[in-house]
Amino acid sequence: MSKAVVALSPVLEESVSIAGCLSDRHLPWSRDSILIYLTVANSVTPMRVLESDSIASVKLRIQNSKGFFVKKQKLVFEGTELARSNSLVRDYGVTDGNVLHLVVHLSDLQVVTVRTVCGKVFEFHVERSRNQIAKRGKGFVDLKDEELIFDGEELADQRLIHDIGKSGDAVIHLQVRKSAKVRAKPILKDLELSIDASNLTDDGTEELRMVCRKPLQRDFCLEPLIVNPKVELPLVVKKLIDPTFDGLERGNHPVISSEGSGGAYFMQDSSGHGYISVFKPMDEEPMAQNNPRGLPLSTDGEGLKKGTRVGQGAFREVAAYLLDHPRSGPCSVCGKEVGFAGVPPTVMVSCAHRGFFNPYGYLDASKNMKIGSLQMFMKNSGSCEDMGPRAFPVEEVHKISVLDICLANADRHVGNILVSKEGEGGQIALIPIDHGYCLPETFENCTFDWLYWPQVRQPYSSDTLNYIMSLDAEQDIELLKFHGWNLPIECA
Ligand SMILES: Nc1ncnc2c1ncn2[C@@H]1O[C@H](COP(=O)(O)OP(=O)(O)OP(=O)(O)O)[C@@H](O)[C@H]1O
Fold first, then answer.
1. 8 Å CB contact between 253 and 275
2. Sign, CA torsion 288/294/299/300
3. Whole-angstrom distance, CA of residue 272 vs CA of residue 264
4. How far apart are CA 154 and CA 135, in angstroms?
5. What confidence tens digit (pLDDT) does each residue in 391-412 have?
6. With 80 as the cut, is the pLDDT of residue 368 above it?
7. 290 CB under 6 A from ligand 1?
8. Quick check: CB of 319 below 6 Å from ligand 1?
9. Strand runs labelled E in 236-274
């Protein structure tokens, strides 16, 4: 799903009120007025609300003062997402002095890629509403030495990012004028010239590394995690692991997604020009120990959604794949290709790489081993968030609904359905992803965005009904057990 933590700059309460966001109801003398704190990473924003305010109205005020659309916000209090818009602040037990974490979809930000002429790439996240070019960067000594170039032209400081890369894939080149130290030392009748230009790159080895992308000594590992030796990996899963391995072996490191509330890494192919898979480590899930988005640790082990456990998202991702049976009916997974709903092939793996997040800074791969789900990367033209639902074929919506009801998916919002137009004649197919919150212990957070789409008013086709009839919950529980997950009784 497309979200990321966005730091809000601290503002005074007064500035919120000046922005016209506070009505009289919110003035300090209102009886149930409380002061709460919105926080992301290290930034805190005080905000006065009423205990009787709905979550929707709090989000609306954040939108008014900060510009983040309501639909792109996620509010989290003590490990629980304030997901029900009509519920009141007090329904979630939020009281004076409490801290709410705000997670904002990254599409509010624009990613700007700056490539230096010697090949180094920097990514900056630029807020669309404040997108003036500002030249600054770690390691570059003097602003006047820097020049940003787009499409062969130098960019003036006042140009807006928004006006530059309208197509969304513009690359800006950064040219840094640095003089190299040239020393001449007389040796007999000759002069020995030495050139020290190490400042041109952070550690002086960048060019070397770029040239040396040949087979490397192995500084990573990637292996499927098979608990039951009787489990045979299906071919499609092998096709997922092998090219991911090749990509790592060629030195193409995992690329952390700028979206999502947990750590998700795009694993590159051997050419370095495409993605093969998405790796989600358990220790980087929301509220887990090494979450890279700054979400707080869960105090009681419960995940972001009610009835789920922190660190079990990867199991659930794999379970969703295993339980998405082919149309021909439930099967042992060995020969399995595409399931009814088209959950991308997913497998548990252990993977070590120094590029994975850890709070201690640089670690070599052997100290940075992670366990998580590895899912096939699916080509897409965006998610259902990016377009109106009318264009989606009825059958495509129905298949997602069947999957979500079977799995009691507690995280089916429009960002978690990818749209593919790869089919014959550009036919739209919907690809369900992000199943880390399925099979919860309670139904409290099971909300489905597709419930409001017109397709769900159509009856299921006989094919779909036949598929539903073929499902067998007991058999599914056994299947998960066979693969090593003894489903807790509440989830079962
Ligand atoms: N199988 C896939 N194929 C292509 N892109 C994917 C796939 N799985 C995830 N992504 C993309 O990776 C990014 C992060 O994934 P995802 O939303 O699943 O992470 P998350 O941290 O679990 O999110 P959430 O905040 O919804 O829990 C998103 O942009 C998503 O579209």
1. no
2. negative
3. 18
4. 12
5. 999 999 999 999 999 999 999 9
6. yes
7. no
8. no
9. 255-256, 265-268
